[in-house]
Amino acid sequence: MTATTAHVPWNTSGGGDSPQVTDPDPLGPQRSRAQALRERLCPPMPGSPLAGWLATLSVAILAGLLRFWNITQPRGVYFDEVYYTKDAWGLLTAGYEINSTTCSGPAYVVHPPFGKWLMAASESLFGYTNCAGVPHGDPELGWRFSSALFGTLAVFVLARAARRMFRSTLLGCFAGLLLAMDGLEFVQSRIGILDIFLMTGVVVALACLLLDRDDGHARLADRLTAVAPPRPGPALPAATAERLDRLRELYGPRLGFRRWRLACGVALGLSMGVKWSALYTIIGFAALAIAWDIGARRTGGARRPVLGALRRDLPAWAATFVVVPIATFLATWTGWFVTDGGYDRHFYGNGFGAAVHGWWKYQMAVLQFHEGLDQGHDFASHPMSWLVMARPVPYFYSSPAYGTSGCHDPAGCSREVLALGNPAVWWVGTAGLVGMLAWWVARRDWRAALVLVGFGSAFLPWLLFPKRTMFFFYALPCLPFLILGITALAGLALGPRGASDARRLTSALTVGVYTIVVVLLFAYFYPILAAQVIPYSSWRARMWFPGWI
């Protein structure tokens, strides 16, 4: 928010040369001023809160039913489940990843442990396969349950975040439905690999960031316009009161402890505890937070809003987006530190200092691995191709013959799990980025900035490593921001509540038809997302491009 308002009078806390209030209701003008400023900084949420919760929860329940239904199919491990299921079992039984070849000693793994701890938690509840290949309970449910749970949670949290962002329950449910009906998010919610945990962590951090924005703006408005009671004891010297008043005019008030910003830092640290790539989202969200602080102080009448944000907000901001994520990330390695068998745990000997030194050596080895990962792969793709889904990843494929595995077609059948996004979401969302850029240039709207910065921090860093082996599912953290961009465009099309009936009707029909297309495309591609047995001709009809085969 960049617009300014007329200077808002600042209130001294007692003493000095404060003007005498002669209004018979001295709080009346202050209340009016507070209400106007609060509505500008933090517009009220329309409608019933209960209705908002029920509506967004309904979308999440739909997403959950889709993701948990028949989740154990196909049986066995496929694609990178072969690695992460064993890592999770090692964490569950030893506190660190175990070498799956020898079933003893540490394994060298190249991703932090938090996502695998989440898988280990569900394995402890439902089942697992040990290192020797002996199953216990229902192994597939064990290592996929947590993925489905977090994939469903992401839908609910994004719907709530979009509702707050656009002040509309309808648009919040619209955003949640788009995520629920996206094929890539659906597939990643039904496989035991890490990316769904990374995306959900980013969405939770986004929701906390939006809550902090509203809470901080509301608190700023309240402190700008509050009438302070007289101080007990002697009044402040006139010079001191004048100096305090001057500082408030220049910089604005302090906002105190910001619990939602702290929660955002924790969520970002946990996201980095799944994959290192969350580091770039930390940088993007940190930039948004300080920019919003500057904008709020400018709108509140601070004469030097930049310096005000630096003086009043920067220390807590640095703690939230630097100290807290680092501390949280380190906490995800607790199992490695408190046990004795982790990789490089005793490379430099015993003791705390030696453990820290060994851990740092381990991280440098992981960094070197990622920087040098450039071997070819049949399913690899360049990041620019992700936006048009040029090369989705076939996680599983089999071709049942007639009369076997439910195949009733004499020409044979196909069964596949293809990590393919919904074309109506990815293609429209990619085009919508242009609209978001135009909206930000024309209006400097903070919501457009959020979409662009969030998407950019999840996508652009991959362009820095053109030779690295990469896959389409790496783009999953970009998806929520593409959906928020589509949602913003839908909101702009619908217009304000006072728009003409003709515009509202035309826009509602357009958005409604688009939503139906999204749902129908998800239903059309569902068989190749959920490993259903279909005739080969039906499978071939869904292979729209050679790169999808």
Automatic annotation (TrEMBL):
InterPro entries: ArnT-like_N (IPR003342), PMT-like (IPR027005), PMT_4TMC (IPR032421)
Disordered: annotated segments: 1-34
Cellular component terms per the entry's GO annotation: endomembrane system; plasma membrane
Domain Protein O-mannosyl-transferase C-terminal four TM: residue ranges: 357-548
Pathway info: Protein modification; protein glycosylation
ArnT-like N-terminal domain location: 59-210
Functional description taken from the UniProt entry: Protein O-mannosyltransferase that catalyzes the transfer of a single mannose residue from a polyprenol phospho-mannosyl lipidic donor to the hydroxyl group of selected serine and threonine residues in acceptor proteins.
The family this protein is said to belong to: Belongs to the glycosyltransferase 39 family.
Main subcellular location of this protein, as a coarse class: membrane
Pfam families the UniProt entry points to: PMT (PF02366), PMT_4TMC (PF16192)
Transmembrane segments: 50-69, 143-162, 169-187, 193-211, 278-295, 316-338, 424-441, 448-465, 471-495, 507-529
Uppermost EC category: transferase
Statement: the UniProt record of this protein carries the keyword Coiled coil: no
MF (Gene Ontology): dolichyl-phosphate-mannose-protein mannosyltransferase activity
UniProtKB keywords: Cell membrane, Glycosyltransferase, Membrane, Transferase, Transmembrane, Transmembrane helix
Bilayer topology term: Multi-pass membrane protein
Lineage of the species this protein comes from: Bacteria, Bacillati, Actinomycetota, Actinomycetes, Frankiales
Protein name: Polyprenol-phosphate-mannose--protein mannosyltransferase
UniProt key word Transmembrane: yes
PANTHER family per UniProt: DOLICHYL-PHOSPHATE-MANNOSE--PROTEIN MANNOSYLTRANSFERASE, PROTEIN O-MANNOSYL-TRANSFERASE 2
EC number assigned by the record: 2.4.1.-
Location(s), subcellular: Cell membrane; Endomembrane system
